[in-house]
Amino acid sequence: MERLQFRKKSFLSPARVSTLVDILKFVLVMAVLIWITAAGTERLGYHWQWYRIPRYLVTLDAGHIAAGPLLSGLLITFKITGVSMVVAFSVGLVVALFRLSQSFTALAVARGYLELIRNTPLLIQLFFIYFVIAPVTGMSAFTSAVLALSLFEGAYISEIFRSGILAVERGQWEASFSLGLTTLQTYRHVVLPQAFRIVLPPLTSQAISLVKDSALVSTIAIYDLTMVGQAVIAETFLTFEIWFTVAAIYLVVTVFLSFLVHALETRMKFGS
């Protein structure tokens, strides 16, 4: 009897009650959003055809399941964002080091780059690279998209890295120099590992922003997820169903990325 009462008390703990209340709130909000969407489309006289969506996600080819048009476009999005993320992080780190250097040339280059990139829209930069620079240099549309995304996101990532480096205590530098480490060795073995732990959350937000900004590459005829969605809509007129599906795919990707980085952050925290 006492054991049963203990189980009841533990099940109704404040933490569990709070979790259940949060789940209930989420369900209610989603129900209201679904009702508003359904009511709005009903007034427009829109006829939902969700049963036609699965064929654009997966297809059957000779008895084998293959990726449909939307998932094929998602693979292109993954490829673009993956390469852009690596390049953007590299550019951001280099620019951050330039900002912290004592060289006038490095400071001038970093400041000019930041002012130019952060004060102009990404779409204009993408058009400039694709329609002006690419024809001269022979760059492909994919390379132009990666370059535009990397330069744009790298400008913001550089400020994140710089703030993380400045957050490392000055005593860490002094201790490293007293041990005979060079500036490069101090950055590599002492400062950057600590700075990375500090800037991991804002870097996650910037990576998610990169995933969403990659939708703009559809404007230069790259068949990513957004471009494929537009093509499917033009063919089937399933406007709401396709756009909601595309939005749901982006949501799943960004939420998965957030959970992945959170797990990495937790592992680093307890690993230290």
CATH-level-4 superfamily name of the largest domain? MetI-like
Give average pLDDT, whole number.
86
The neighbouring-strand order within the major sheet is: 1-2
Q: Tell me, what is the CATH class of the largest domain?
A: Mainly Alpha
Residue stretches low in confidence (pLDDT < 50, at least 5 long) are none
- Class derived from helix and strand content: mainly alpha
How many helices does DSSP assign? 10
Report on the biggest sheet.
Answer: 2 strands, antiparallel
- Computed over alpha carbons, the radius of gyration is 24 Å
Strand content: under 5%
How many separate structural domains? 2
Which topology of the largest domain does CATH recognise? MetI-like fold
* CATH architecture heading of the largest domain: Orthogonal Bundle
Let me know the number of strands.
Answer: 2
Q: Name the helicity range.
A: over 70%
Distance N to C terminus: 44 Å
Shape: globular
Oligomeric nature of the chains = single chain
